[in-house]
Amino acid sequence: MLDFIKYSRFKFRDYRKPCVPKGPNFSSAKTYKYRLQGSAISFKAPKQIHLFRPNSEQFTSNWKDDDLRDLKITEIDTFNDSWASSTILTRKYALFGPWFTGELARADLFLAAICPAKEPKNLNFLHPRAFETAISGYLTADYGCMKSEDGSADFKGPLGWEPIRGFPVPAARFSVESECWDSRNILFCFPVSSNRILMFHFSFDQSAAGTFEEVDAIISPEPAQNLIENIINSIEFSPSPELEKELAELRKTCPDLSVSKDFPPLKWPATVDETGLNIVELNAERRKALAG
Amino acid sequence: MFANKGVKQNIVIAGKSAGKVVTITPQAEPVYNEIRNLAKQGNYWAQITVNALHQLTSGRLHQDNIFIKPGPVHRGGEEEFVMILPGCKVTVEKQSKDTFKVVYFEADAGYAELQGSKATAGIFNAKHSKSKWTAKKSSDGEIRKDEGRLVAICDSRYSDQNIAATTIAPGVAASHYSPEVGERDLRKTGFDFHLTPGLGRIGGLTKLKDAIKPYDNTKIHQSAILLARSMYKARKIKNVSWIAERGGSAILTQALKILADQGKTLPGHNVFLFDPKTSQTKVIENAHRLKMNVGRKISRVSTFNITGVMGSASASVYRLRHEKGYKIGQTVGDAAQLGALLGTGAGLATSVAGVAGINIGAIAGGVGVAGAAAVPAIGAFLKALSQAKPYIKNMKSIGDAAMAVTESVSPRIHNKIKSKF
To answer: Does A149 reach chain B within 8 Å, measured CB to CB?
Structure first.
């Protein structure tokens, strides 16, 4: 009951012992409902109010009914600005340590609809193979192009690929990790129509140095992971009649709409071409540059 | 079987053929070898250490070399001093026959492993995506080779690279872009920052010693040496701006001093101080020695930063004496601006006090009128409203005062509110 005193945002001392931080309470989370291109989506996410915490504006779209036509390239930082996004909601959670040790961990949610900046003409994201292509293209444009000075890729992904059964559209969750960026991201993606993919992008990190194992040994990642897990489990999607029709048509040619069981990590570093979908291996690009 | 091994001789590590001989005691040698191996593998901080020891051969040990702390002078003219280098502290003895002997090598065992992580000082690259800043440590300790790169030198109060990046981003943006642009362009290009984790705030009124004598803070030497190296490595990149944020000005001062003492120059690079907590004069002095570009404005100081406000005046006087383009007109201009800044502070105090007085007066008056005349509620309300007229007139000054307070207490909220207008 006194958790709000025990786990407060005030920091008066340093704390270097293993501990479990505490984040927002999920049981009091508000349900958000949006109608995206006719289909209804709902999920639960708590809101934490931050006053003197830098960079913690939390964006809530007040367009409950959105056709997702307004895309921006500035919200996500992809290679060559090849992907565009339309942000729907962002949440920033701070997880506090016990007894005035301050903020020890963070978890963020970024919900957006994404699409290549040049919209592909004849690609239907509802088809599981096209969806997978799009995901690999997006991940490469976002994470795969980052490399260290020695030429090795910064990020690894997708890891822990998990197809979601019982979802009306092909859906998958997976993670992308980088130790040097101290960044662990969990993504939950599914196509919301034939030309937009909805991305629940979660990230969490802790204020400790070292590898992920060392960090986890000092500050437990579980509260952040549980929070993310709870939000993911609360996601519901009900297709609009038009989308249902489209899916039924698609089932005629492709009876199984679920994504592949496995998706091995992509070979990075790599970039994407101007469509944002085809992966260009760096060596090939360099060869082309030398030849031309 | 009874081979006479004898007493182990001191091993010569540098200056065999020319210059002053540098030897090392057999006890300290294994540590030195370890660090030399790391240097050979390309560890930049280990290279700094090895080079510093080798440079002893030149005998250049000037008194003002800030990372050398003189120790007690022993009998026979032997002098001991401590060199503070990244990841180690080296005790060196200057012997009577004009040679140097490394007596003691105190290496931080975990430094090599920690170097890759955010627990040690170094250059980080910050990037904005999905409405958050993230940062990565540069593995070679160099900034991104982009023309006109912005590099912040952070205060040491941040425990985490991502927290540092999110907190300083508004400051970096405010130092380079106009308030109207805000963080927009910075988010696009990203920036680099030099972070010194975990030493707490530097300078300011609470640590006045740092503020007045930024060279004397030994805790930040390691960080300053690393920064000096990053600055030197970036010398060929054009138009780099080094922006010290709050207590980061102490680290920048030391780094500039190290470079200037070695006779290096950084022409075409800019220096700026965002809310400096230590002496600004020393930054300008060293920036001039390095032939760096000191703009018309050297710093942006908030009203509440007393060390910064005090420093601005002396910096102005220093520039009047030492800078060609900085004449009495500029001094007057800066003084006027400083006066305005102080005026904001004073006005802020008076307006807060005044508003408090008016507020009480208006309410008392309103209640009094309503009570005495016993007019209906709506009348009382109108009456109170008319009484509160001066209150409304003061709204702007209250607003300005509140914004000034917010800007210095929480720049982030300030930007957030400003973005709404």
So the answer is: yes
